[in-house]
TrEMBL record:
<keyword id="KW-0028">Amino-acid biosynthesis</keyword>
<feature type="domain" description="Glutamine amidotransferase type-2">
    <location>
        <begin position="2"/>
        <end position="201"/>
    </location>
</feature>
<dbReference type="InterPro" id="IPR029055">
    <property type="entry name" value="Ntn_hydrolases_N"/>
</dbReference>
<comment type="pathway">
    <text>Amino-acid biosynthesis; L-asparagine biosynthesis; L-asparagine from L-aspartate (L-Gln route): step 1/1.</text>
</comment>
<dbReference type="GO" id="GO:0005524">
    <property type="term" value="F:ATP binding"/>
</dbReference>
<dbReference type="InterPro" id="IPR051786">
    <property type="entry name" value="ASN_synthetase/amidase"/>
</dbReference>
<dbReference type="GO" id="GO:0004066">
    <property type="term" value="F:asparagine synthase (glutamine-hydrolyzing) activity"/>
</dbReference>
<dbReference type="InterPro" id="IPR006426">
    <property type="entry name" value="Asn_synth_AEB"/>
</dbReference>
<keyword id="KW-0547">Nucleotide-binding</keyword>
<dbReference type="GO" id="GO:0005829">
    <property type="term" value="C:cytosol"/>
</dbReference>
<comment type="similarity">
    <text>Belongs to the asparagine synthetase family.</text>
</comment>
<dbReference type="Pfam" id="PF00733">
    <property type="entry name" value="Asn_synthase"/>
</dbReference>
<dbReference type="Pfam" id="PF13537">
    <property type="entry name" value="GATase_7"/>
</dbReference>
<keyword id="KW-0061">Asparagine biosynthesis</keyword>
<keyword id="KW-0067">ATP-binding</keyword>
<keyword id="KW-0315">Glutamine amidotransferase</keyword>
<dbReference type="GO" id="GO:0006529">
    <property type="term" value="P:asparagine biosynthetic process"/>
</dbReference>
Length: 611
């Protein structure tokens, strides 16, 4: 996804710190494996790691002179609406060729209009601009916060970066974790934010400007409530049109390095089918699709998955005529120490659902190894089209807390998924019950209800708002493989539209995501259109539980393991000796996995706990 590092200092001469800037930029190499460049001036320095996804990124940082002073820009992700921006620039008397890189257009737009052009973009993007004319830094993110951007203050300035690890590598920054950061890291309420004490994040749809007098920040977009005035048929047609528009703009000109994940679920199948249709319209190459499965896993239906992915994915691939690839993993592949370390480095934090997320991490490495650079996913389908269980289960909808927390509690995880082994002192310090309640009230306090909405409609709007604003997509595992993620469903104009679609439209037909299914009904096999939601595959082979048990025992036998002060040792030892429970009990497995990940994180990142 490319990566940027920056350093602003109004007292030091950063020209002398160029080696440090280069070193800190290098921490982002996994995001940008195709090149590195550094620009340094006395007051500002920018470093960039390049992912050459489609040959159109341009050299970054991009430097142009405006009024006799440098304006330096860096952009990560894949901003959209560039044709519109190019036309606006042309109307302002500044012509640019169709192949002009995004960063050059953005630098020209800034020179022409200042920051006012940023809301015209869509996409996944993060922007950093240093304006030497006024010694001001501009940081901005897309509407849906799809590209990360963190920052922290030094004793005499500011550093910012695409990933936390680049900030933690700075000589003046320590990895200190207080109760607030640990709550975010291990609870399942909110996606992990900056986590470490002193680190902050530019918010989605935020333009943040930093100069000698400090910060000026403003939000340029938010999710708003409005009446939905179309009938079901018209709504279905609008969803289809908006998906096609998003696909058309999302697909690169050069599709030779384009791939798509395909689970056989309605989200990824819709994206793959629409993309394949657009490629045929252009007369281009066939779409390459990828599905993951386990070689030695006896599939077992459970509360999160009803059916195996691969047969459904193959049916879609046959119908859309894609070049299909089945990636088969061994059951214990994801427990290899190198994979554990790689997963941790990808996310800079413990993984909430290790087996599911790490199978995706390892799976996507195969796509990258076979030449993929841009990956289409069905990300955000559950959020936009109310497909997750907490959007269809009345008890969860009316739970009065985050419905995903209510789901975990329903199955016995009182404090959230994976937290069962925390000891009493840790739980007291974290006070997760109060944390969940406070964050929930803060979130629902942002919601605008429409006049005349009954209690059920208000509840459904509440759940929809929560999943759309508190469940952003995490593309870190793709970025760690040197791949750029593009999720055409996660398009802010479609998000705006879908948020206001009545729940009755979303759920018509007696199956979740009925509206999306109807919108693409002509493109997919009947069995896929009728397939109920099924989560990411996991291994049920006994070798997985045995390997997990061995690793867990090793941690508990180490008197210096940094996780020991946080966990209930007696309960942990009892679980470590209960192989059948590790094999069959998803909550127990999640607790063991989180303990292992937390231990590795505390050790590898040299985290100092300040609870």
């Amino acid at each position: 996804m490319s990566g940027v590092f920056g350093w602003i200092d109004f007292t030091r001469d950063l020209v002398l710190d160029r080696p440090v800037v280069t070193m800190l930029t290098a921490t982002l190499a996994q995001r940008g494996p195709d090149g590195e460049a550094v620009w340094v001036s006395p007051r500002a320095a920018l470093g960039y790691r390049t992912l050459d996804a489609d040959g159109a990124g341009g050299r970054q940082p991009f430097v142009t002179e405006v009024d006799g002073a440098p304006v330096v820009a860096a952009v990560t992700g894949a901003p959209l609406h560039l044709d519109d921006l190019r036309q606006r620039l042309r109307s302002a008397g500044r012509g640019f060729a169709p192949e002009t890189p995004a960063v050059e257009l953005i630098a020209a737009a800034y020179a022409q209009w200042g920051v006012e052009f940023i809301p015209w973009l869509a996409g996944p993007f993060a922007i950093a601009i240093w304006d030497a004319r006024i010694e001001e830094l501009v940081l901005a993110r897309d509407q849906l916060a799809q590209q990360p951007l963190y920052y922290t203050h030094t004793s005499t300035g500011l550093i910012f970066a695409t990933e936390r690890k680049a900030l933690l590598a700075h000589p003046e920054v320590d990895a200190v974790l207080d109760a607030s950061g640990l709550r975010e890291a291990i609870s399942h309420a909110l996606p992990p934010g900056p986590l470490f004490k002193g680190l902050e994040s530019v918010k989605g749809a935020e333009i943040a400007r930093f100069g000698r007098t400090g910060w000026t920040k403003r939000t340029y977009w938010k999710l708003s409530s409005r009446p939905h005035e179309e009938d079901l048929e018209s709504t279905t047609a609008t969803v289809r049109r908006m998906l096609e528009d998003s696909i058309r703009e999302t697909l690169p000109t050069d599709t030779s390095r384009l791939v798509a994940t395909l689970s056989g679920g309605i989200d990824s199948s819709s994206v793959a089918a629409l993309a394949a249709a657009e490629l045929r319209r252009r007369g281009g190459d066939k779409l390459r699709t990828y599905t993951v499965d386990f070689k030695s896993s006896e599939f077992e239906a459970d509360v999160m998955r009803d059916t195996r992915d691969s047969p459904y994915a193959q049916a879609v691939a046959d119908m859309i005529d894609s070049v299909h690839n089945l990636v088969e993993l061994e059951s214990t592949d994801i427990l290899h120490p190198i994979i554990r370390q790689g997963m941790l480095r990808a996310k800079d934090a413990p993984t909430r659902i290790y087996d599911m997320e790490t199978s995706q991490y390892l799976f996507i490495q195969h796509a990258g190894a076979q030449g993929g650079k841009i990956v289409l996913t069905g990300g955000a389908g559950d959020q936009l089209f109310q497909g997750a269980r907490w959007s269809t289960d009345q008890g969860l909808v009316e739970s009065g807390t985050f419905p995903w927390i209510a789901l975990a509690q329903r199955f016995g995880a009182t404090n959230g998924f994976g937290t069962a082994l925390l000891n009493a002192d840790t739980l007291a310090a974290l006070d997760l019950r109060t944390y969940y309640a406070d964050e929930y009230q803060k979130a629902i306090g942002e919601i605008e209800y429409l006049p005349g909405e009954d209690e059920w409609q208000r509840n459904m709007r509440r759940v929809s708002y929560l999943v759309l604003t508190r469940g952003p997509l995490d593309s870190s595992v793709f970025a760690a493989a040197g791949l750029q993620t593009r999720a055409p469903i996660n398009y802010y104009k479609l998000v705006e539209y879908a948020y206001n679609i009545p729940a009755a439209y979303q759920h018509h037909g007696g199956i979740e995501k009925s509206l999306l299914r109807a919108a693409v009904a002509d493109l997919l096999p009947e069995q896929v259109l009728k397939r109920r939601q099924s989560a990411t595959p996991v291994s049920n082979h006994p070798s997985y539980a045995q390997r997990l048990q061995d690793e867990f025992r090793a941690i508990l036998a180490d008197p210096d393991a940094p996780v020991r002060p946080l966990i209930d040792l007696e309960a942990s030892k009892a679980l470590a000796e209960d192989a059948p429970r590790l094999a069959k009990d998803r909550l127990a497995r999640a607790a063991a996995e989180l303990t292992l990940q937390l231990n590795l994180w505390l050790h590898h990142y040299r985290v100092r706990l300040a609870l």
